[in-house]
Amino acid sequence: MSALADRPANPVVGRRAAHESAALHVTGAAMYTDDVAGLSTGVLTAWPVQSTNAHARVTIDVAPAYDVPGVVRVLTADDVPGLNDAGIKHDEPLFPSEAMFYGHALVWVLGDSPESARLGAEAVKVEYEPLPSIITVREAIDARSFQGIARTVERGDAATAIAEADRVFEGVTEFGGQEHFYLETQASFAVRDSEGQYFIQCSTQHPSETQEIVAHVLGIPSNEVTVQQLRMGGGFGGKEMQPHGLAAIAALGAKLTGRPVRLRLNRTQDLTMTGKRHPFHITWKVGVSADGYLQGLDATLTADGGWSLDLSEPVLGRALCHLDNAYWIPNVHAHGRIAKTNKTSNTAFRGFGGPQGVFLIEDVLGRIAPELGIDPTVLREQNFYVQGQSTPYGQLVKDAERMPLIWSQLKGECDFDARSAEVAAFNAEHDDVKRGLAITPIKFGISFNFAAFNQAGALVHVYKDGSVLINHGGTEMGQGLHTKMLQVAATALGLELHQVRLAPTRTDKVPNTSATAASSGSDLNGGAVKNACEQIRERMAKVAGRLLDVDERDVRFEGGYVTGLGNRDLRLSFAEVAEAAYLQRVQLWAAGYYRTEGLHWNPDLMQGSPFKYFSYGAAATEVEVDGFTGAYRVRRVDIIHDVGDSLSPMLDIGQVEGAYVQGVGWLTLEELRWDETDGPGRGRLLTQSASTYKLPSFSEMPEEFNVRLFENAREDGAVYGSKAVGEPPLMLAFSAREAIRTAVGAFGPAGRGVVLGSPATPEAVYWAVEAARAEASAELDASEQSRTGVGADAGPEPAFAGADS
Amino acid sequence: MDEIAITVNGLRRPLEGATAHTTALDWLRDTGLTGSKEGCAEGECGACAMLVATPGTDGGTEWTAVNACLVPVAALNGQEVVTAEGLGSPESLHPVQEKLAEAGGSQCGYCTPGFACSMAGEYYRADRVPAPAHAHDVVDEHDEGCLVHDAEHGPNGFDLHALSGNLCRCTGYRPIRDAAYELGMPEPGDELAARRDRPAPAAVPTDFTAGGGRFVRPATLDETLRLIRDEPSALLVAGSTDLGVEVNLRGRRAPLVVAVEQLDELRTLSVGDDVIEIGAALPLTEVERRLDGRVPLLAQLFPQFASRLIRNRGTFGGNLGTGSPIGDTPPALLALGARLVLASADGEREVELADYFTGYRQTIRRPDELIRAVRIPLPLARVTAFNKIAKRRFDDISSVALGFALDLEGGVVTNARIGLGGVAATPLRAYDTEAALIGKAWNIATVKAASTVLQGEGTPMSDHRASSDYRSLMLGSALLKLYSTTIHDDKEVSA
Hints:
Chain A is α+β, with helices and mostly antiparallel strands.
């Protein structure tokens, strides 16, 4: 038992709570970065001049922009007093002399209205001297265009294990990226204040890094820059790195003009300028015993990093650490590398490489199950980790028994076996419509692979009237972090929720913060908030002990009151104790700090224990596929997911549902298409607006959607026994992809693996159905031929080809 | 001319600082009402949704949810608008806001004000009726159609299609649906409910010049026709669901925009003995309600046409006027044998829709003409279907779309009209396929043969929506699917 995980009596954590800003959200009163900008006067708008070439040296003439009425200034490389760089790897020039992708921002025009800035940007003349460009991952592989450090996870002897296995399968798995499509596009608003300091409001998941990049671009120390983050209209990883350069542009504009500068990308700018989820190209070979136990896996993963490194290295690292998902693979050799292409620089996106790693093993299992003649549900279940086993990167799989427990609970609760029989009966009766039901697991490691990020700070004030104001280093993007932090503070101080308020995230309140990312926001900041509250509570307990005539160890804080064990007569309000503490000159505020204990990781060896714990879950999804069109519908979804002992059940269920649907979007609907031709539009993103890039709408919501949190799930290593929730459930969406695969399989003969393109759009599903039907009719022909004695061979084992869309 | 002003959340606000091209969204935000958000600026996400008081049946008013990002603010002169801020305040939530908040319907909150407005529009819909009266009242939706219908209505009569134009990236929609389905009926004392009993604001003739553009709302049809005769560059606009996208995404700044959506002559709907006439500027939602299933092919089309937010402004005239090859109404109207009434200062002429399209976004309409009405001849064909192939079921642009209208007598196809979209530079009639069907027995052999012909109609191309091969195959598939549903129906009848 750990003190970190222990809950007091009647805790506020664990209660259903609405989002702390819900009433503001629904009335439009909640302010976002660009809303704030609109309240100021004299504001300039920044507008980019974007490259219309995928790769070219550029010569820029900004003079014509100044002829446009309302244009105040054009920002160029010559204006940068510090480093002309927007990243942490020093490979992202803020004002490039070489356009590295179609859409790359070259210079920025400041206008006194959006219209003048836009027209000014149109007036800027850019001459391009084209250079060879690489658009697809395959082109990059052929040209050996790589960047960053390649990594390998290795255990045992994969080659020998595969060579000696009863069955060997190999194939290529390819899948596309995903646009974050946070509803609020990237936005920054910079003001230089009366003291010459920069105050920047920014829609960022990483205010401290935004602050650092602004400081290095301006050539000033961090203490001259304050970044504030009110709330984001969604982040999903897309605001972990991408906002920094944009904030620096706004700050530079404020410096050079003395006026406030707003920068909000419109949707097309956002789509064409900012990074997305990494597409991967994976070649693989797997050895399996005749009875379906994984023996060895050999894979080469190539991540499409885009034009710069950004977060590609840690994303690749997490992919390599998740290609086992929930399965014991005794021998593994997985090599990962990062392609350099002339596209937007791919970045963090919910799951951060995890979904790409999980994709591989789920695709492999889904493809080979029919070939092995083993039900995919059984194949998955029998390969689960058992207690005592370790991951390929050497970490003991903690709580491994939760996976089969969740699995069996879910199968029972969703009537999996009976419904499988119903699906089979339905499919037997219908030629043109088929159903599929599939269940998939998720095991996801929690903590930043980069160990230094696993720390957090908080600042808690108790005022004399007993009201409490908390501040922490995490950012709110809709995930409910602030609500959970209020619940943690109320629990730690023994208050009701309404007695605690939260102030916006600012780098001058809590410094050197980590990105709110890796699902770690509650774990890290919750630890820090709890720590700060407990410091204050201990001091107040001394005061209260004297007032209540009990030992300080016998003072209890609960429900806004302070009592002493054994003293039934006296009950003090929290405010009374706070007032008394002030008068006795006891400090009523505290800085809290938290670091995750027990982590170690060697990135060169790719071995260690990078994760504090694992999150588990399983989902069962039933779909129906229309054989005429390939269109499908998600009929029912059942999920059990492990969030430890939930800090806030409604918010956690919201995270699970939202992640699932977002994952289904990535796997089945959302398609980034680039111009891969050699024409003048080469490298241009073709799906660059909401009308061409389709994310799930109401029509993709499962008709029946049952989500339950795993019970009695205390996690000793996290605040109040909870677990992270943001990312892991995204990967529950693989159950939808596997359900589509089984439905497609029902159009063909039994025992044939189905190769499914990704995303599994209606068209991709249609082609898979056509392939299945072709096999069915070929088999029919073959059996007729063999009956008539002509041609005996039913054909060779089908080789798995790449599922290229 | 009087000062241009709009009543927003009960307060009259003069149109200061706006240009002829300024959208309602930008203007609202500039006036400090930042609850309305820009998520896409092309009517896809609904984060900007607001309510507009529009004329209802029986002389009352309806609260109609529309995309503020697409409507030129000048088009709202004299009108009444309600935004999320006007529905309620944090201290006093509107019922839809209360349900959304407590159900966990907001996470990041950015899409939420728009959802609140779309939900409120449906909350106040006069013909929203709780469930029992609603079961199985759609006669012509086959197979999955029926399931859809039931799955998309709440026990309170809430039609989920009301939210089809609102995107949320956080929640996965389930809590929003639950909030919508838990709504009751408006309580006594609800001012917005009471407002429905009084007439909507009248159209206000407007002539507004600012920012290098001119926006004109003529008072009468005659005035409109004279204006477009004298100003050949005039751009006609009805719901502005297309122009708004051009303005926002492509920087289009037409020198003269002429608004026609409030002209009475363009808002008629009459069902005669041998023709149904639909005013070209009647919003599709209103056409849908007033036809009430009278034209089954259109009843199938409407829920698949963009989103409710778009249908609340979008019109037949606009969808045909742009001449787009991927509009959803042309395939259906071609199958129905529709004719268009083109009006000019010189009078009216009637043209076959099949003759109307002449090239990519080119039509026979002269610059001095407008589409006044669409005429659908009666009787209607007995077997009709609308097929739209798209990535997403709600609110997507079609890869291909097909309208079918067949007459069968004694098992023989006696007449056939098939309209196609997305397979050529213009919408097409599938004449060869029609010929392959007419006079033939309606059986699988005929259908397979005709389906092969249909696959070869047009010259579909490959783009980000679909490959040319898939588009072609989907044409043939659609006929096979139609056939399978007629067989299915027969089975049900005989059973």
